[in-house]
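Protein Record: Sequence and Backbone Structure Tokens
======================================================
Scope: a single protein chain, as residues and as a discrete description of its fold.
Tokens: labelled as protein backbone structure tokens, with as many entries as the chain has residues.
Position: the record begins directly beneath this header, with no further notes in between.
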Amino acid sequence: MNVVLLLHSLLVFMIIGAFVTVEIKNMLSAVISIGAVGFALSMAFLFLGAPDIAITQVIVEILSLILLIRATVNVDNVAIELKGESVFHNRTALIFVGIILVFSWFAFGSLPPFGEPLMRVSEFYLYNGLAKVGATNFVTSVILDFRAYDTFGEAMVLFVSISGAFAILRRWKREQNKDFLRIDREL
């Protein structure tokens, strides 16, 4: 299957998922829909040859889904009725979507054809990796020497997201245990 066709189908899926997220009334369904968009984005990163970014996206997406599902499980889905303002909001949203689509069309049109490198840095890595670093594995030389700060930043994103989810879920578990202890004492 052609990679470009696959990426286009993933893009269409993400756009449909984003519209479903915005239009659906149930909060939990909206969270699940936006999670599907995030996982499609991680698949797009994988097909574009960026497995490190895809892994980071999957981990952040999973932790975000856990937090969002936790936040929306107990929310009542009460629809807020906007009377005169809904026409203005819809028109404004359509204008901004149109502007974004026009700018996206010009931005994607100015990109080089698929498969051609955007920057010539990768050629430098290939031709000078062994001489400058002394590593026999080019991937290791790129990740740990040439792009060490980028790799460190990705590791920090993973660490912070896991720590944040752990702290929130730990507090939630503690509150749940207090409720059980209170019910136990009343009995």
